[in-house]
Amino acid sequence: MERDTEIFSLIEQEHQRQLRGMELIASENFVSDQVMAAMGSYLTNKYAEGYPGKRYYGGCQIVDQVETLAIERIKKVFDAEYANVQPHSGAQANQAVLLAVLKPGDTFMGLDLDQGGHLSHGSSVNTSGILYHQVGYTLNRETGRVDYDEMERLALENKPKLIIGGGSAYSREWDYERMRKIADEVGAIFMVDMAHPAGLIAAGLLKNPVKYAHIVTTTTHKTLRGPRGGVILMGKDFDNPWGLTTKKGVVKPMSMLLNSAVFPGNQGGPLEHVIAAKAVAFGENLQPSWVDYATQVKKNAAVLAQDLIDRGYDIVSGGTDNHSMLLDLRPKYPELTGKVAENALVAADITVNKNKVPYDERSAFQTSGIRLGTAAMTTRGAKEDLMHLVASLIDEVLADPENEQVIKRVREKVNETMKDYPLFAY
Ligand code: PLP
């Protein structure tokens, strides 16, 4: 068979794009060689429907050990008693939880998408909003932080069966204790989607939601720096005080309901090559150097946010407690949309994504904001000095986003600078 030069040339082009640019997309990262090697391994050849020790296919003796290691490692990372490492993605992990704990038409609560929530927390175009009834909570207009008083009022009014914490564009710590109290008050299950800050939580730099929530989900590819995928965790296995049943009407412990919701409820064969890569990443999360990495991610985000504030930009909520920040462009440049800002920065090899800001009057295709994060740049070895440069380059481009000369000058500076930073420095 002929070698596929077309695809492999595109892969190399993408590799070069990653090498020469500054990657500031808050949900992205660069994986280690070992994580990469596990993904491109012989495990991709194996079918393994079911769970370790209980498969629907023969020949699973090795992948059983791989999956068990992934489970044991992530339980250790987050001090959890239960883990399902099979969800193909974060959205599918969330979909599986909803399938396990809700019936079509049931009410649940999540942070609205245009306030920083995720699609899978009840957006009308996602199965979470199509199959179930979502009541969205919001951010306080003045503080830019989650409005827990409103959340409580909405919970008492709507009696949701599930309340979801966590978001995609929220730079502040969550009050999990308050959320658990609100959930207990109305008899709801409390779930946290920690996809964004999970890597910082793993390092002990932010509160661990596994201690407060009944169920926790995460992606594995953002700050956790693993392969693309999802995970479901529980601090302890609930013997199901809510009386939730299987699709056949039998009351079972939460662990069994969640496992059945992932497979066969939501997926077929698990991606054992990706699960192996997850195990490698969780092994990295457990090493002492992980704390150094996560600490630097947080420091870098704080420096970048402060530099941008000093240059007159508005950061939603006034700063960041994690790796991310949402830049509201309106106060400094009322005419500049997130779309134009993203395009100009990408042309200068600074990759960001446009994002709606809370109470944005522009559409999701235009937006008034951009979201930034420091997880990927920190993996490349970036420290505070590089963050000062990043802030000044962003400012230079946004001050004159249609000026080709400025974009060219900044791009050359970006490309020259990033020659000193390997893709993976830790
Ligand atoms: N949950 C949160 C909070 C996210 O930010 C994301 C993705 O950005 C997801 C879930 C979905 O993850 P995936 O893209 O793997 O489905």
Written description of the protein model:
This protein has a 7-stranded mixed β-sheet, with helices on both faces. A 4-stranded antiparallel β-sheet has the order 11-12-15-14. The mean pLDDT is 97. Helix 3 runs parallel beside helix 10. The radius of gyration is 22 Å and the shape is globular. Strand 7 (162-165), helix 7 (176-186) and strand 8 (189-193) form a beta-alpha-beta unit. It has helices at residues 5-20, 33-39, 61-78, 90-101, 127-130, 148-158, 176-186, 198-202, 254-262, 272-285, 288-310, 338-347, 375-379, 384-399, 404-418; strands spanning 22-23, 50-51, 54-55, 82-84, 107-111, 133-137, 162-165, 189-193, 215-219, 230-234, 314-315, 324-328, 350-351, 353-355, 369-373. It is of the alpha/beta class and 426 residues long. The structure holds pyridoxal-5'-phosphate (PLP). Pyridoxal-5'-phosphate binds at residues 27, 89-91, 118, 120, 166-168, 193, 195-196, 219, 228, 230.
Radius of gyration: 22 Å
Classification by helices and strands: alpha/beta
- Cα end-to-end separation: 38 Å
How many helical elements? Answer: 15
Number of strands: 15
What proportion of the residues is helical, as a percent range?
40-55%
Mean pLDDT score: 97
Strand fraction band?
5-15%
Largest sheet: 7 strands, mixed
Bound molecules: pyridoxal-5'-phosphate
Order of helices and strands: HEHEEHEHEHEHEHEHEEHHHEEHEEEHHH
Would you identify the regions where 5 or more consecutive residues have pLDDT less than 50? none
